[in-house]
Amino acid sequence: MRRSSAPEPVLRAARGTLSRSSPRGAFSLAELIVVLLVLTILSACIAPALTSSFIDASSPERVRREGERAASWLQRVFYKALLTGRAFTLSPSSLRSQRNIVVQWTAPVEDEVFRGDGSAFFINNAVESPRSFYVPKWNILTPALTIRVSASEGPRKTAKALWYIVVSPYGRVSLRDTPP
User: Fold this and answer.
1) Using omega within 30 degrees of 0 as the cis cutoff, is the peptide bond preceding 48 cis?
2) Residue 110 lies in a domain
3) Residue 43 covered by a domain
4) From CA 180, how far away is CA 177, in angstroms rounded?
C-alpha cells in the first residue's frame, strides 16, 4: 500500500471526517443576527396579545378604546348617510345599558349594528327622547344625542359613566370625559 505524503489532518478532511483537534468554538456574527431577528419578530407578535390579556376587561383604558371605536363607527354612519342620501334612526336605550348600538336605515329598511367586545356598555344620556332622527337632505340630527359609555351593565342609575359620545345636531361625533 502506498502512503501519501500529505499530513494527517488534510487526509481526514478529504475523507469527510471531522477532526477533534479543532472543535467549533462559537457562533458566527451572521448566525447571531439571524437569531436576534427571529426573537424580535416573535416578541413583536406576542407582546400585544399578552398586553391585552393582562388589561382588565373593565379597565378605563379598554373602555375608552371601545368608546373610540363606537364614536368612529357612528361618524362612518353619518358619512355613509350623506353619500347615499339615506335617513336613519338612532335609538340607544335610555333605561338599561347595552353592548350594541343599533342604527335603523330607511328606504330600504335595514339595521346596522355596532357590536362591542364586551368591555363597554352604552346608554342614552337623555331620558325624555329615546330616538334621534337624521335627515341627510338638511344634514340634521334631531334631537342631538349623548351616549354614556360605562364599564358595567345595568340600569340607568347604577351604570357609572366613564366617557361620553357626544353627537351634535350636524353629525359631528366626539368622545369626551365630561358630559356636554
Assistant:
1) no
2) yes
3) yes
4) 9
Q: Which domain holds residue 129?
A: 60-176
Three-state DSSP class for 119? coil
CA 6 to chain centre: 69
22/68 same-domain check? no
CB of 88 within 8 A of CB of 81? yes
167 beta partners: 145, 173
pTM exceeding 0.85: no
Q: Is residue 40 domain-shared with residue 64, that is, in the same domain?
A: no
Q: Write the pLDDT tens digit of every residue in 47-103.
A: 776 665 555 556 888 999 999 999 999 999 999 999 999 999 998 887 788 889 999
Which grid coordinates belong to 143?
334631537
Is 135:124 a contact under the CB 8 Å cutoff?
no
Q: Which helix (H) or strand (E) holds 114?
A: strand 110-115
Residue 167: phi, psi to the nearest 5?
-115, 115
CB atoms within 10 A of CB 102: 16
